[in-house]
Amino acid sequence: MAATLAKVPACVLKSGILASLRFNSVAKCSSQRAYSMATLPFLCSVFREKSSIRQRPLDLLVRARTALGNWKMDMRQQSNYAYRGAVSTKNALDEQKHDSEEETSQETLRHDINDNDMVSVVPRADIKGKCVIANTNIKAGTHLFTLYGDKQRQPTLYTIQVASHAHIHPEGKLIFVNHSCSPNTQFQFSPSWDLYAARDILPGEELTFDYTTTEWQMAQPFQCSCCSTKCIHKVQGFYFLNADQKAERDGVLSPVIKKQLKEQTASE
Ligand SMILES: C[S@@+](CC[C@H](N)C(=O)[O-])C[C@H]1O[C@@H](n2cnc3c(N)ncnc32)[C@H](O)[C@@H]1O
């Protein structure tokens, strides 16, 4: 399939992707979406004469790239929570350094690298908000953001939990990174909290991470629109996941979630 797509002229491919997205926009579930992506080459030729994607809303382009990225990932059969292990070395360090809850030092987190040129913040109409997209090919393991910002006791829809009662309101573009149940980025927690590409990311593809790997109980739960086959539908924090969903996230959890999980298990 990838080889076939490679032979399709770029303009035809773009129009085909738009057509596929029209179907995607009415598709309610991942199987319909998968069908849409499987018929992409056919739709490419049907929509050969359609107008340039530049005339379309940027939102469609973002979704096209994201869908294509997800499809490529599926093709690689990365079904077992694919992003785990992309940058696993630091997790070993995390095990050693975060056995006890350790509040993240604001000073050590302060870097100027969050406004990197690899990504842009753009509107995303379907959630009436913004999102972060890649401006270029981003290789798996690439450093994207360092978490820094004001620390507060109460969580909000924007904060990232760094201790039981400490939440950082991220500065920079990181604040606009949305959730996905099959994310293409993940946090590493040592020495600072940094977001890395968990797989190769295409230009125009939306960057996402799994909020349940950092949030125990979220301030504002929401209905997930990621359409992943692994979608948990209602995103409300790690605490609310079922046993299988919790097990799938083993290895990518923040030290805070690990600690709270340990405490919960001990008290049961
Ligand atoms: C940290 S903000 C992310 C930026 C946000 N999209 C914005 O424009 O302000 C988190 C909020 O974005 C929305 N969001 C993030 N991921 C989502 C998803 N997968 N499905 C639906 N809404 C999502 C939810 O409203 C959530 O409370």
Automatic annotation (TrEMBL):
SMART domains, A to Z: SET
Domain of life, per lineage: Eukaryota
SET domain residues: 117-212
Region (Disordered): 89-109
Pfam families: SET
UniProt-listed PANTHER family: HISTONE-LYSINE N-METHYLTRANSFERASE-RELATED (PTHR12350), SET DOMAIN-CONTAINING PROTEIN (PTHR12350:SF19)
Protein name (record): Uncharacterized protein LOC109467371
Lineage, opening ranks: Eukaryota, Metazoa, Chordata, Cephalochordata, Leptocardii
